[in-house]
Amino acid sequence: APGAANVEIVLKRGGAVVASVRTETSGAYRASGLFRGTYDVVPAPGADQLSVPEGQTVILDAAHPSGVASFQLATTGTVAISARTPWDAPVRGVGLKLLDADGREVASAETDAAGAGTHRRVMPGSYTLSITVPAGHALSGDARRALTVTPGTQTLALEVTPLIHSVASVPETLALAVGGSPLAVTLVAKDIN
Question: Of 45, 76, 89, 102, which has the fewest CB atoms closer than 10 Å, so is most exposed?
């Protein structure tokens, strides 16, 4: 595969950063002037990439005055999910678990006040999305959905309907008398999640 240019490579010793270098056009990098010891070498790829492996350990000593740490970068995908009612109101608290082919959880999220939930930096492949809705709501469709993640952003829209337990009719205008003066109050129906 072609080399990845301008990727930051961080060298740590005892958890502290001791050096930071960037890859050349060919993907090669070199950190010189290091003392003997054990170093954790960790690439810091872009937001849509993951390093395989995530890091490596290199030991520099008299027998090994230089070391090599090689990495491959994989471009990842993003799954953006929206949960909304049939009348387009957002639904908060929808659980979104991403499971690999073996059924292991690889990512977990929950929709926010805007009804949005996101799984970022997901390796391309086949997954199952397990969906749980908050109490008092029903999901349209299956609670487990097959997904094929590819590089880039994919979107998935979920329809979640609040369960209605009872309906009461109220007058549209209510006439009240306060201190002998009439007061008109208008009631307006609101969507409440």
Answer: 102
Q: How far apart are CA 92 and CA 96, in angstroms?
A: 12
Report the Cα 56 to chain-centroid distance in Å. 25
**Which residues are CB-neighbours of 49 under 8 A, at least 6 positions away?**
73, 74, 75, 76, 121
Side-chain-side CA neighbours of residue 83 (13 Å): 29
Instruction: Count Cβ atoms below 10 Å from residue 160 Cβ, excluding itself.
Output: 23
Residue 166 has pLDDT above 60, yes or no: no
d(CA 21, CA 1): 21
Q: How far apart are CA 4 and CA 101, in angstroms?
A: 29
CB 141 within 8 A of CB 159: yes
DSSP calls for 69-128: ---EEEE-EEEEEEEE-TTS-B----EEEEE-TTS-EEEEEE--TTSEEEEEEEPSEEEE
